[in-house]
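Re: the request from the purification team.
They wanted to know what the chain is likely to look like in 3D before they choose a buffer screen. I agreed to run a prediction and write the result into the notebook, where they can find it.
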Amino acid sequence: MRKVRDKFADPEFAKKFHGHLTVLWLVVSVPLALAFGKQVIFVTWLSLYAIVVAHWSSWQATRTEIKQAGADKKIREDHERLKKLDPDRPE
């Protein structure tokens, strides 16, 4: 269970996962709405739309996490470089 949780905590993996699911649901949603939505087409379409939008927003959120992780890494590297240049400087 921990492996799965750790995998989904990785922003790179989450980006790929939600990106693939977004594309999958975009491709599948129209045929599903046509096949199963004859009785209640509006509700069917709303349900499929909600699934697509949820994955899309998760995908976009992971893009932000990746950029933030990169910025944090750069700040840490800059801090280490400054410490090497002036070791007597207080933190």
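For the purification team: Residues 13 and 42 are 33 Å apart (CA to CA).
Please add any questions underneath this entry.
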